[in-house]
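Service request form, structural biology core

Requester: graduate student, group of Dr. S.
Request type: structure prediction, single chain
Budget code: on file
Notes: please return the result as structure tokens.

Sequence provided:
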Amino acid sequence: MSDLRGVLFVGAHPDDETVMAGGTLAMLGAQGVPVTVLCATDGRGGESGGVAEASTPEALAAVRQEELRCAAGALGIDGLTWLGYEDPVMGPDEELFGFAADEAALIAQVAGHILDKGVSVVISHGTDGEYGHPAHVQVHRAVARAVREQAPDVLFYSVGALVPEIEDRLWNASDPAHLALDITPWVEAKHAAMLCHRTQHALFKRRRKLATVREAIRTVESFRRQWPPVDGRAAPDDPFAARLRSAGAWQPRFHEAGE
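Core staff response, request fulfilled:
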């Protein structure tokens, strides 16, 4: 199994790294793989969760930066970078928006970061933006183009890939999973990171009507290789896939129509 030079997670908001891939990032870090995070927005448009010091959008942005630093420490992440885009405030009925960014400039920023860090794998949002979040879709597209056009030797895996035997509102229906990992061995690190994101605790619990943050932990994290494309139903064969398999990942089985 070839060594990974490094793994970069590119997220739209603080907490995306933890919710979608926290266990996997903790596993990689524990194995000595350099892991870094690139966060596109400042998170000011999200909920404050009643945290007193996050009473204004500017204050919320500052608090969420500290939350991400805390989560990075819990997961063993080596470095954080923010692109500095302003996260739009939710509209009526929790309507979500993408962030204001020139697409070409965003792609160039992401590509520059990938090349500067010298990573061999980039992980980011899925095709559908998980639950359809426009900013997640925006980041997915930027990462896909950055890798394909400017860093074609780098692997791009997306999170929240569809695992048919498990129901989850965050699965990307357009992205059948190549690999799924039970992150139970690293669940304590993921739990600690989720506790760091305290402005989001009410949201974590409310969406699934849960009593505790621990109950909100997704213990299966799933991935699809977006670049380079994988032919048909073949399993990916690369250093990241090998690393996942060595940690216990499996390939979900998808049934053909009429099977």
